[in-house]
């Protein structure tokens, strides 16, 4: 029982460290992209952390198998490099016992990964689409940033506001350039009407149409055709900045609940459902590969087989991606799916285990003797 807890603790501790490091790298990369979108006015600043949080389930589901694979390699690699495993074998701990202990943690990791890929990730993707739709619908209201020229949602005007009161969403010192209709022959930006107002506010109607109401301002317009320049003072001025409510966009397959994917067995939904199952399965299958690959000589160090192991994991992932693309295009039958890739890696794992065990070495030696006798 002491050995059991020791092996589990070493692998779990290393897996957690690897997971946190990789997650930090990916989240930092996502954070930079979201900040870039926010700085350009694509999303409101107060939703930056929301978008980052919604990416965590998807990232966690993909990183957990990799972190477990690396955790096994690093933990057992250190134990082998420091001759601890030699002592354990001398005490009666077999290779198969190490595999069984690791499989327990592999099943736990697979369950957690399945929760992310099968349930949490689609829910987060759906909520992300809802937030994006809301941002698009409120583009005239919430995305206006003080001190920046911005195009309205209907692309018919450019707005600049000097200051924004977040309490009641009112604007101060508002400049608006109403652009000419692109369908109008010989339309020119010179024909634009310029509006300056002391205050402004966006009002949204029930239909989703949004208007910018300007107060206490002046409208300037240059009429080239009639060679006239007009200057009109106003108390209230209405400008339409959003034509209609944004239609509900077609959701990507990543946002569809897993239960609905099985009800609609098209090539795309079949590929997506098998893709979600692939990550939990990888936690179990790669356990059979990682344990024998972690066997290193003390002279090699714990990183002795890290490069070939990573190449093997990358090949496994790339094969899954390629076959998934084939299922979506119809070149790979749905009933075959990703299963051949899993089967090949599973056979590879068993062959590595048998090769490393005493019975496997005896079997290999017996075959060599028979060939020599022949």
Question: Quick summary of this structure?
Answer:
The chain has 374 residues and is α+β, with helices and mostly antiparallel strands. The chain has helices at 2-39, 48-81, 84-90, 95-137, 258-263, 267-293, 306-329, 339-356, 358-373, and strands at residues 150-151, 157-165, 170-178, 193-204, 210-223, 228-242. Part of the ABC transporter complex LptBFG involved in the translocation of lipopolysaccharide (LPS) from the inner membrane to the outer membrane.
N-to-C order of helices and strands: HHHHEEEEEEHHHHH
- How are strands sequenced across the largest beta sheet? 1-2-3-4-5-6
Structural class: alpha+beta
Note the quaternary state here: single chain
- The average pLDDT value, as a whole number, equals 81
Helix content bin:
55-70%
Low-confidence stretches: 245-250, 362-368
Q: Give the strand content.
A: 15-25%
Number of helices: 9
Number of strands: 6
Give the overall shape.
Answer: elongated
Radius of gyration from the alpha-carbon trace, in angstroms: 31 Å
Question: What is the total domain count?
Answer: 2
Kindly, what is the distance between the CA atoms of the first and last residues, rounded to a whole number of angstroms? 48 Å
Main β-sheet, in a few words?
6 strands, antiparallel
